[in-house]
Design brief:
heterodimer; A: about 240 residues; alpha/beta; six-stranded mixed β-sheet; four-stranded antiparallel β-sheet; 10 helices; about 25% strand; globular; B: about 750 residues; mainly alpha; ABC transporter involved in vitamin B12 uptake, BtuC; two-stranded antiparallel sheet; about 70% helix
Chain lengths: ~240, ~750
């Protein structure tokens, strides 16, 4: 399986703060890759680098074999990168349907209406189609973010904490959806705090701590990695 | 050398005054998060108050200064913070910006009212006549005082913000109001204090500046706007850079003054007088500062709101257009010639307001220059060959649209307040460099030819009004088509979240450019179709402000709102000319209407629209709603009711009665007991105010007031328990929208409370 996304030695500095330090990450085609780490580890910053929201201080990002360091945000979308936001970024004053329709139209789908409806159905929020996005519960709003991102028919889907605000059952359904997407050939990179979700669906997991990539590999390898345990539970565990 | 020193000192003085003004601006911005466009106007009005006390009443200078800076300015600042800004809270940036624009318009109007241009004695600086000689150059005491106080103020401000408890609290409140409050800061008092200080600085700068350039309302207000360039150079944060920027700007102005006086400086350039260039220098500096700002980050979206941007329906839009055209045709059959001209004025204003619908309403981009584009439309209509042929009109509109698109190019780099300022600077530049040229407006007036269309030349006011109503309807329907298309959805999506839009593949530059071009094209129609001799100040920045204000007040995202805003503005303007005693009130009205936005964020037309929606779904109400006008019309045709009385009844019927019909016909008897007398009183008010002997504007004013009273009283009755806005926002707990009545009920049920 070839690499769809390759992040090479990316460093991101904000003033004196190093948010990412020479981070490497490879997302292979047709897989679900997890990106975990404590709060402030640099996960969202890495997403922003991949999407082009903020150019990195140094390092390179290759997508589908092409270096995309100089591509603008909307150009990367056209190449096939789509994402959701941890801090919800819906078009609040539009209807749920219009939110997805805008995305489908931007991707120049000839039958945007149909694509929009299909994606709402896929996420199980088609009954909310006519509601205003601003009135949704946080859980439904997260699902709408995913539906909207999918409506651009991406090759790579970046999900930033899609399960926060979902209950256990919804979270379980989200896991099934991710597998379903993988089976349809969509590659997924997901940032998530819900460990059972990450360990359950991911083919590969990367762990960031304070901007440094401290571990990567199969979920079970990562789970038992002492570095990871120390990062999550504090120094005492490692010292004892 | 002597001259160089003299001009350097002039430059440093101007720079010092700019530094005072701009540091006040930075102070209010960093401590309250509101960019106060009215900062210059506060300086202006303070200078006038000082003049009143010092020179008209003859109070000694120190006492006068103490009264103005120690009492008037702090009170004005605290008043503005308390009654204009505080309730805005989490209102979006467009609204917050507009409120300070309203403040500026209101203060300019108030100054023009209280201090008419005649009968003003000279404004003299501090210790005028006393000079100090430095390096062989005589310097007036006013200049020395300006320089010294600027330095002192800069040092004190720096100390205040970083070394005192109040300053640290001020910065904390800006960073996170709720968190600061939880930690014991009192945000309201702190905002109040910062606005008091900001006003004092603006006032002091205004007084010093007036001594240098004399008392004039508009120049004084705009000169302080020049100081904004310095604040922008400091990125509205750094007091040091602000200070440096102010000095550079001052020196630049002084040296330009020097060199433009020399013989080698070209007096004209391609027939354009270069004198305007010197006046425009600070504005150009502001423009360059804005463009030199680093590319704005992709803005994350606004806070979550539950309000919907509704797609306009074809059925209502077509119906509205037909009603407009038929109504105008019917009205012109009844109206006198003077009132027909008044109606034409209203429609031209409505067209100008309409130009902001795609730009500000759909796309969320604020422009302070709608009339600048109208003025350009008038200029091209007059200057292009064809003498008013349809082709001339098309070419004029196309050229202005292109100019609008070019102005938009830097706009991608700018966001919110910076973009608004750039459009303001553009308006000033076009005014000084183009409109004020002898070549463009010969002898201060431009002769715009009448449109000629298949042999009709629209010479009669009636023909013109009907033509304008058709144009307004056509443009409205085009906007409806755009809003319903993918482009329209993209515009609204961009307003809601540029970041998400770009991430989904939206080319923000393209959408912004189209929005600007479209807006410029519509505005240019309002200028090009306004035939006759027009003065350049019709299209100046200060004339544009009321357009923006009433657009927002009417409800910027809807065409009905634009129409409503245009009619209100037209009424206001006509009232000023028709009733001289009301002219002064007319000057301040748009400003004061705009300032009430904090209480009615969605615009008046949205309120009326909310009233209509239940009516449309209630069949008996629909029938009664249609029967009313038919009865009025019949009474008019048999001469029982005069034309004006017909209009008054119709107006009250449309605004004060129809919306209440469902509650009257389908509501409880208790409801009926209040609403029936209310609607009848409204209709009587409409009838009486069109019966008594009043000029047109006065009648319109009475009608608008009566309709507002009826609507507000009825709302109070129908929603007796409308939830008051929460004082403390529960944002920090993740609750971003207020509880609905149903949710409150659920909570009450859950905890067993019986309200």
């Amino acid at each position: 399986m070839s690499a769809l996304l390759e992040v090479r030695s990316v460093t991101q500095q904000f003033g004196g703060v190093t948010a990412l330090a020479r981070v490497d990450l490879t997302v292979r085609r047709g897989t679900i890759t997890g990106l975990i780490g404590p709060n402030g580890a640099g996960k969202t910053t890495l997403f922003n680098v991949i999407c082009g929201v903020r150019p990195p201080t140094s390092g390179s990002v290759r997508f589908d074999g092409i270096e995309i360091n100089n591509a603008g945000v909307h150009e990367r979308s056209a190449m096939g990168i789509s994402r959701t936001f941890q801090r919800l970024e819906l078009f609040w004053t539009l209807s749920v349907y219009e939110n997805v329709l805008v995305a489908a139209e931007l991707a120049a789908h000839p039958n945007a209406d149909e694509v929009a409806r299909q994606n709402l159905e896929l996420l199980g929020i088609d009954h909310l189609a006519d509601s205003t996005a601003g009135e949704l519960s946080t859980g439904s709003a997260r699902l709408l973010e995913v539906a909207r991102a999918l409506a651009t028919s991406p090759k790579l889907l970046l999900l930033d904490e899609p399960a926060s605000g979902l209950d256990e059952q919804e979270s379980e359904q989200l896991g099934q959806l991710l597998r379903q997407l993988r089976d349809r050939g969509i590659t997924v990179l997901v940032v998530e705090h819900d460990m059972s979700l990450v360990m359950g669906v991911c083919d590969e997991v990367y762990v960031l701590d304070l901007g440094v990539n401290i571990a990567s590999g199969k979920p079970e390898q990562v789970r038992t990695n002492p570095e990871v345990i120390r990062a999550y539970l504090g120094a005492q565990v490692g010292e004892s | 050398m002597q001259q160089f020193i003299a001009y350097t000192i002039i430059g440093l003085t101007i720079g010092a005054i700019y530094a005072l003004a701009s540091s006040g601006l930075v102070l209010t911005y960093v401590t309250s998060g509101v960019f106060n466009i009215a900062h210059g106007a506060i300086g202006m009005i303070s200078a006038f108050v000082y003049w009143q006390i010092r020179f008209d009443w003859g109070v000694s200078a120190p006492l006068a200064l103490l009264i103005v800076l120690g009492v008037f300015c702090p009170l004005l600042g605290m008043f503005i913070e308390r009654f204009v800004l505080r309730d805005l809270g989490a209102a979006n940036e467009v609204t917050r910006l507009t409120v300070t624009v309203a403040l500026m318009a209101g203060l300019i109007g108030a100054a023009a009212w209280i201090w008419p241009p005649d009968a003003r004695s000279a404004f003299r600086g501090f210790f005028e006549g006393n000079v100090i000689t430095v390096l062989g150059v005589n310097i007036g005491m006013n200049k020395i005082i300006a320089l010294v106080s600027a330095v002192i103020v800069a040092v004190l401000l720096r100390y205040l913000l970083f070394n005192t408890r109040l300053g640290v609290q001020m910065r904390a409140v800006v960073d996170d109001r709720d968190l600061a409050e939880l930690n014991g800061a009192r945000p309201n008092q702190i905002s109040s204090a910062s606005w008091a200080m900001g006003s004092v600085l603006a006032g002091y700068a205004g007084i010093l500046l007036a001594a240098e350039v004399q008392l004039n309302i508009i120049p004084l207000t705009l000169l302080v706007i020049n100081a904004y360039a310095a604040a922008i150079l400091g990125r509205l944060k750094s007091l040091l850079y602000t200070f440096v920027g102010a000095m550079v700007l001052g020196l630049l102005e002084a040296y330009l003054l020097w060199t433009s006086g020399s013989s080698w400086f070209p007096k004209s350039f391609f027939g354009f007088n270069t004198g305007g260039l010197r006046q425009a220098a600070p504005t150009i500096f502001l423009f360059i500062c804005l463009l030199a700002l680093p590319q704005a980050k992709l803005r994350a979206g606004m806070v979550r709101v539950a309000q919907r941007s509704r797609e306009p329906k074809w059925s209502t839009s077509v119906l509205g257009s037909v009603v407009l055209i038929v109504g105008v045709i019917a009205l012109t059959a009844l109206l006198t010639r003077a009132n027909t001209i008044f109606l034409a004025q209203c429609l031209l204003f409505a067209l100008a307001v309409l130009s902001l619908v795609p730009l500000t309403g759909y796309s969320g981009l604020v422009s302070l220059a709608p009339l600048t584009f109208a003025g350009l439309g008038a200029v091209f209509m007059a200057k292009l060959p064809g003498n008013g042929s349809v082709l001339t009109l098309v070419a004029a509109v196309a050229i202005v649209a292109l100019i609008g698109a070019v102005v938009a190019l830097p706009a991608l780099r700018l966001e919110g307040i910076y973009l608004a300022l750039a459009t303001g600077a553009f308006a000033l530049l076009v005014s000084t460099l183009i409109f004020n040229q002898q070549k463009v407006f010969p002898n201060g007036s431009l002769d715009v030819p009448r449109l000629r269309f298949f042999g009709v030349d629209f010479q009669q006011p009636r023909e013109k009004v009907i033509m304008l109503s058709v144009v307004f309807a056509a443009v409205s329907l085009m906007l409806v088509a755009i809003r319903r298309s993918g482009l329209g959805r993209q515009m609204v999506a961009m307003k809601d979240s540029p970041l998400a839009g770009a991430m989904l593949g939206m080319n923000l530059l393209k959408v912004k450019t189209v929005a600007f071009a479209l807006s410029a094209a519509i505005a240019s129609l309002a200028g090009a179709l306004d035939a006759g001799k027009v003065p350049p100040d019709r299209y100046s920045l200060d004339s544009s402000l009321p357009i923006l204000l009433l657009a927002i007040v009417g409800g910027i995202s809807s065409i009905g709102g634009a129409f409503f805003g245009g009619v209100m503005l037209g009424t206001n303007t006509v009232m000023a000319t028709a009733i001289p005693s009301l002219a002064n009130i007319a000057k301040v009205t748009p400003g004061f209407i705009g300032m009430t936005l904090g209480r009615n964020v969605n615009g008046v037309s949205a309120q009326i629209g909310d009233g209509f929606r239940p009516m449309v779904e209630h069949r008996p109400s629909v029938i009664v709603a249609i029967v009313g006008p038919v009865v009025f019309w019949t009474l008019t045709t048999v001469d029982i009711v005069s034309n004006w009385q017909f209009f008054g009844l119709l107006f009250m019927w449309a605004l004060g009665t129809i919306g209440l019909l469902p509650a009257i016909l389908g509501g409880t008897s208790e409801m009926r007991r209040v609403l029936v007398p209310l609607t009848i009183a409204g209709l009587i008010a409409g009838f009486v105010s069109t019966t008594v002997d009043l000029p047109t504007g006065g009648r319109m004013l009475c009608l608008i007031v009566a309709a507002t009273v009826v609507v507000q009283a009825a709302r109070r009755k129908m929603e007796p328990n409308a939830p008051a806005a929460p004082v403390h926002s529960p944002d920090f707990a993740g609750l971003t929208t207020p509880f609905s009545a149903r949710e409150l009920q659920e909570v009450d049920d859950a905890i067993g409370v019986v309200p």
